[in-house]
Amino acid sequence: MFARLRNRTRIANYWLIAQVTLGFLRLLRLLPAERALNFVDRAARRVGPLAGRHRTAIGNLRAAYPDKPDAELERIASDMWANMARLAGEYVFIEKLLGEQDGDELPARVEVVGAELFLRLRDDPRPRIIFTAHLGNFELLPIMAARYGLAVSALFRAPNNPFLAAELLENREGSMGDLIASRQGSVFALARVLEGNGNIGLLVDQKFVDGVPTTFFGRECQSSPVLARLARQFDCDVHPARCTRLPGNRFRIELEEAIELPRTAKGRVDVQAATQMVNDIVEAWVRDDPGQWMWFHRRWEMKSWKKQPPVRA
């Protein structure tokens, strides 16, 4: 009885939060895109520091940058909140922001580094993995890949709120192509895409309970071995890609050539070393512009550290 009541209360709370959030976004849609996004930027800089996660963000920043003064850490955290608010607001205006086209009928607000690589991968049907991190508006990556005709099946984690999750999924599917929900069995779905000479997209900068032991900003953490294990299984290329937010509601998309993953003495991908290599690439990206990464995430939290069985060479 109490469990049923608690579940109903949780569902009601989810529904209320979703209605408030979606209602705010509908109101935001009434404003011109530039004004609306600038408004949420300013609002987030004021409200963000009041959230409990702000303390988590400052703690993580202090550990990552022990030599930076507190004022600098607060500035980075303020930029982070503004970036997250703009990301939410861009759900409303993404079609408008990407609707302004250049001479090649590509979004004028998006600067692409590696455009020729998008086309080369499109015309070369082999299995490959493209990885990124929660930087800038990271959801533009599969959208831009689709604009170049490169199909990418992206793994995504839906919000815990089922009402918000349904709304976001509906909006994402129209522009982001094939989406694979992160849940039990999702690795098999990714493997099926690679078996069919397809491309998969992975976000690799979140904690992973019982993941492989690695470091990030010099601190121990657990990281997902999925990318390395799939690369090992299919011996496929792995490409880094990132989105950087630029002034004036503009973006830069960068797709890089395939990286050489570390290998064992038998020539197979070394899962732990490859996972660490990916962490190091993401760390370099974050250091380029730390205000565009989500420092409030408990990346270094290790709830159930277990000794992992060795991966056979």
Automatic annotation (TrEMBL):
Entry GO terms, CC: plasma membrane
Predominant place of localization: membrane
UniProt keyword terms in alphabetical order: Acyltransferase, Cell inner membrane, Cell membrane, Membrane, Transferase
InterPro entries: LipA_acyltrans
GO molecular function: acyltransferase activity
Pfam family, one: Lip_A_acyltrans
Protein name: Lipid A biosynthesis lauroyl acyltransferase
Alphabetized CDD domains for the sequence: LPLAT_LABLAT-like
Location relative to the cell: Cell inner membrane
Any one biological process term the GO annotation gives: glycolipid biosynthetic process
Transferase among keywords: yes
